Amino acid sequence: MKIVTILIKIAHGFEFKKFKDAVKRNPNDHSLRARFAMFCLNYYFSHQTLARLDEREAVNQYENIDHSELRELEIYYLMGKYYLGSNDKKAAEVYLKGIKSYNEFAARDYAMRHEYVEMAFSIALNLLKLENNHAGPHLEQFFKIVRHTYLKNFLIEKVMIKRDIGWPPSRSVQQIEE
User: Fold this and answer.
1) Residue 61: CB partners within 8 Å, gap ≥ 6?
2) What is the CA radius of gyration of the chain?
3) pTM for this one?
4) Under 8 Å between Cβ of 113 and 145
5) Is the Cβ–Cβ distance between 130 and 88 less than 8 Å?
6) Distance between CA atoms of residues 52 and 72, nearest Å
7) Average pLDDT value for the chain
8) Are 75 and 120 spatial neighbours (Cβ–Cβ below 8 Å)?
């Protein structure tokens, strides 16, 4: 068991160094910084006692990111999770930035709505919990986007499924049994 832990730590160290070097070469690549922070946070959450360097690096990378242009909603989810419990105000700020980012991209790119909706929904639920079920304007906008997009599609798909399976059936169950 110890050997596996050592190998995981070595592999993580190599990957960490590759990310660190890439960020040094491309300091203005916010997407790269976000991926590096997500890498560090994922490792931190799975190995908390061993990952203090990852913790510091993730916070540092997150603080240096231009948040308005990120499509990686997972960074907002993970950073919010990181602050949750120790600094709920900061966690709420991070989650709110994630919802704002989703709303902005969803308004500009219809495909964005589908691609990132699960992560955005998780962020929204965490934010609702932190705000004691009080939905501010950005959360309301998010839920309107979700409602309009998915409820409409769900109803259309339901109609199509009924047509495909022949619902309502042309014959009753009694007629089939006879």
Assistant:
1) 23, 33, 34, 36, 37, 40
2) 22
3) 0.75
4) yes
5) yes
6) 23
7) 80
8) no
The DSSP output letter for 26 is -
Torsion sign over Cα 29, 30, 36, 40: positive
DSSP sequence for 28-95: T-HHHHHHHHHHHHHHHHHSGGG-HHHHHHHHHHHHTS-GGG---HHHHHHHHHHHTTT-HHHHHHHH
Q: Are 57 and 40 in contact (CB under 8 A)?
A: yes
- Please determine, for residue 98, whether its predicted confidence score (pLDDT) is greater than 80: yes
CA distance 113 to 103: 9
Cα dihedral 38, 40, 41, 45 sign: positive
Most confident range, picked from 90-94, 112-116, 163-167: 90-94
Distance from C-alpha of 136 to C-alpha of 96, rounded to nearest angstrom: 9
What are the two backbone dihedrals, phi and then psi, of residue 104, each rounded to the nearest 5 degrees? -65, -50
Encoded amino acid at 110, one letter: Y
